[in-house]
Amino acid sequence: ASLLNVEHYDVVLDLRDVRTSPTFRSTTTVTFSATAGGSTWIDLVADEVIAVTLNGIALDTSVYANDQVALHNLAAKNTLIVDARCNCTRDGTGLHRFFDPVDNEAYLYSQFEVPDARQVYANFEQPDLKAEFTFTVTAPNHWEVVSNGAQESRTPVANGVDQWTFARTKRMSTYITAIVAGPYHHVHDEYTGQFGTYPLGLYCRKSLAEYLDHEELFKITKQGF
Question: pLDDT digit string (tens) for 53-98?
């Protein structure tokens, strides 16, 4: 934190093939300031690093080792692009993928607390290095996709595939960012209080829809607020 000030992450995830492949494409563009001439690293747990570009200069992918991308000769203002293939997990960390035996559909959700956002996108995995985030997700068009920011658009990009873009967030730590993607059953409501009106959403696998007591859950949530 004495070396860096992270400004923004633009994270682009391509999940269109995760029903048949355990990996997905992850492209992260990070803008940050640093002590000029300094060195550091960015965290990433990836199956493959395809390309790394720092301030317009392509770096050899050998800069990626031991779950870190080494960065040298930093400028005062920096733009880093890391293009990689990352793995879905089955242990509840990173981007967890579950196949429901009832409908044989893939359901994904993230769990990044505390050091597991690095399994999904390149980042400075340190809670006091907060930044703003923008997520763009490509996925099958019969899926639902949600993230921290409000959905700004949903656009067809290929046969049976849509792209979701989400609003830029406020500053937060990496472990608070979230992605939920899959053919989820969902129910919506809203809460109105002294500070405004806020949308509420509940998501569950389709096979569990009949067990989702949305009225009770929304009631308790509103009482909490």
Answer: 999 999 999 999 999 999 999 999 999 999 999 999 999 999 999 9
Distance of CA 89 to the CA centre of its chain: 14
Phi and psi, residue 87, nearest 5°: -105, 140
pLDDT tens digits for range 188-212: 999 999 999 999 999 999 999 999 9
**17 vs 104: CA distance, rounded Å:** 15
DSSP code, position 169: P
CA pair distance 37, 182, nearest whole angstrom: 44
Residue of 73, 51, 71, 48 lying closest to 60 (CA atoms): 51
**Phi and psi of 214, rounded to 5°?**
-65, -35
Task: Round the CA-based radius of gyration of the chain to a whole number and report it.
Answer: 19
